[in-house]
Every structure is written in structure tokens, then in C-alpha cells.
Amino acid sequence: MTKARPVPWSGLRHATIARRRHASPCGGVRPGYICAGEHVRTAPSGLSRVCAHAHVRTLYPGHMAFTVAVVVLKGGAGKTMTALALAEAAAEAEAAATLVDSDPMGGAVRQAALAEETGRPMRSTVMGLAAVDLPKRMGSITPGADFVVIDGPPPGALKIAKAVMESADVVLMPCPARPGDLDRVPATLQLAKDVGVPVFGAFNFYKKNTNNAAAAEELVITYGVNMLDTRLIDSTKVAENYGLRPRGLVARYGRELLDELTRKAAG
Ligand SMILES: Nc1ncnc2c1ncn2[C@@H]1O[C@H](COP(=O)(O)OP(=O)(O)OP(=O)(O)O)[C@@H](O)[C@H]1O
Ligand SMILES: [Mg+2]
């Protein structure tokens, strides 16, 4: 009899919810959040409703999966490749993994269909849903899933990008290791901050010992990005994975991401 492997993200959702408590200067409970304590009125008159209590993000009914949104407001950064690699790694680790493709052009769905044709289909369930009410629909579109990856949309679709972040426990932001391609990082961080979801960055297109890599590493520090150690090199072997179930260095990248992200997201 094979021994069940420990699922790295079991208990993670609880930890993530607990960590989401934050004091926020707001005028009440924000949509999608529940109040975990008493409102504290800081002004003696009680008129200044500065709120210092903990807000806890609500769970949407039926949606209990740990959810990673792969988002950066930059095109061609490797979102789809990363989302497919991560979902594949989770499925390989025996999770009921679902990938939600929020790109209206359906890049991940297309790649899953191509992989199917090769006779080596993706092991995760891949489905397309580019909708601004994604948070409400998560429970019904991912029933039974315990690990969900959402492939973020291209940069123009801001409302969808926000909905994707609102549906997630954590944002994974692929960062091309080229300074010129990091220009949308601050806007991505700001969007995540507005939504109240933590962000981890991971370098992609990384070329060791180059000026670009050194400059990109300095820039992400300036931007205050919480970078993962896991990174993916710039290689034609990555592009050759297009339309295939992730293998070789892409599969390895997915496994390393899954391990580091789930450990760090649990705090
Ligand atoms: N590390 C890498 N080395 C070489 N090519 C890569 C690497 N990462 C991604 N690519 C290639 O770059 C292209 C863009 O990647 P991908 O489609 O994943 O980006 P994206 O961020 O999803 O783009 P979009 O914003 O259009 O959705 C693809 O052809 C992919 O195979
Ligand atoms: Mg894409």
C-alpha cells in the first residue's frame, strides 16, 4: 500500500486567513471582509470612525481551496507558463488542482488543449473564466479543488486583474529579470495592496552574472518586492514547453515554486 504524501498546503488556508488580519483606516467593513472584533472609535466623540480592528477576509461559500493568483500587469512576463507549471506541480503532488484561465484570449486553455492532443494531458483541471465577478463564482467553478491557480489576464484587463486578486489567498508575480520589464511592478503591488492580498515575486528570464540581472535585483529591492528564491532562467527550453505538459526545467520550477510559496504563504 502506498503511503499518503503529506499535502504541503493542508492547514494553510487557516494560517493565511489568520494572517490577513490587518488594522485599516476605513469607514466600515470593506466588501469581502468580515469584522473580527469591535470597531474602535478613536475620537472621544465617536465621530471619527477610524477603524483599528482586525478585518478578516471572508471565504466564499463552497470555496475552500488555497488559491494563488499569478499576476503582473505586464505582457509576456511568463504568467501563463508559471501558472501551468504551478498547477501541474500541485496535481503531481496529488492535490485536486484547478487552473482558472482569466485571460480573455484563453492562452492556458489553448495550451491544455494542445497538451491533450499530444496524449500527455495536463494533470490539473484547466478552465477558462475571464469575469469581473470571479470571486463570487469561485466556489461553483472549482468544486472539490483544494489547490487553485488563476492565470492572470494581460495588462489591459485591469478589472479582471483586480477580480483575480480578490479571489486569491496570495499573488505570485513573475518578474522578468530585465529592468525595462519591471516597470509595471509598482502598479501590480499597489493593486494587491488595495485588495489586501500578499504578494511574492519570482524572477523569470533570469540570466546569471549579467548587468540586467544585477539591475533587476536592485530594482525589486527598491520596489519592496518580497522575492522568492525560486527563479527561472531564460532558456529556449522553456519556450519549447509551449502546448506540452510541463517537463524538465519548467516542471522543476513548478515544484520549487509550490514548495517555497506554500511554506512562505503560511508565514
Ligand atoms: N524563462 C523563459 N525563457 C524563455 N522563454 C520564456 C520564459 N518564460 C516564458 N517564456 C516564453 O515567453 C512567452 C510569454 O510567456 P507567457 O505566455 O507565459 O507570458 P504571459 O505573461 O502569460 O503573457 P500575456 O501577458 O500575453 O498573457 C512564451 O512564449 C513563453 O514560452
Ligand atoms: Mg498569459
Q: Which labels suit this protein?
A:
alpha/beta, 9 strands, Rossmann fold, binds magnesium ion, binds adenosine-5'-triphosphate, 267 residues, 6-stranded parallel beta sheet, single chain
Strand-helix topology:
Layout: H1 12-19, E1 22-23, E2 33-35, E3 54-57, E4 66-70, H2 79-92, E5 97-101, H3 107-117, E6 125-128, H4 134-141, E7 147-151, H5 158-166, E8 170-176, H6 185-195, E9 199-204, H7 211-223, H8 236-239, H9 248-265
Parallel strand pairs: 4-7, 4-8, 5-6, 5-7, 8-9
Antiparallel strand pairs: 1-3, 2-3
Helix pairs in contact: 2-9
The structure holds adenosine-5'-triphosphate and magnesium ion.
How would you describe this protein?
By secondary structure, the protein is of the alpha/beta class. The protein has two domains: 38 residues, no CATH class; 200 residues, Rossmann fold, CATH 3.40.50.300. It has nine helices and nine strands. The strands form two sheets. The chain has a six-stranded parallel sheet with strand order 6-5-7-4-8-9, sandwiched between helices. Strands 1-3-2 form a three-stranded antiparallel sheet, with helices on one face. Helix 2 packs across helix 9. The longest helix is centred in the last third of the chain and has 18 residues. The N terminus is likely disordered. The structure holds adenosine-5'-triphosphate and magnesium ion (MG).
